[in-house]
Amino acid sequence: MTTEKHATDRRVIRTKKAIKSAFARLLTEKDINDITISDIAAVADINRKTFYNYYSGVHEVIDEIENDIISHVDEALTDIDFKSSLESPYRIFEKLTAVINTDMDFFGYLLSMNSNVSLSSKIVELLTMKVRALLKQSIEIEDDRLDLMLVFMISGMVAVYKQWFNSDRSEPVEELSRRMNVLAFKGLNGYLGTDF
Question: What CA–CA distance (Å, rounded) separates 57 from 51?
Answer without folding.
Answer: 8
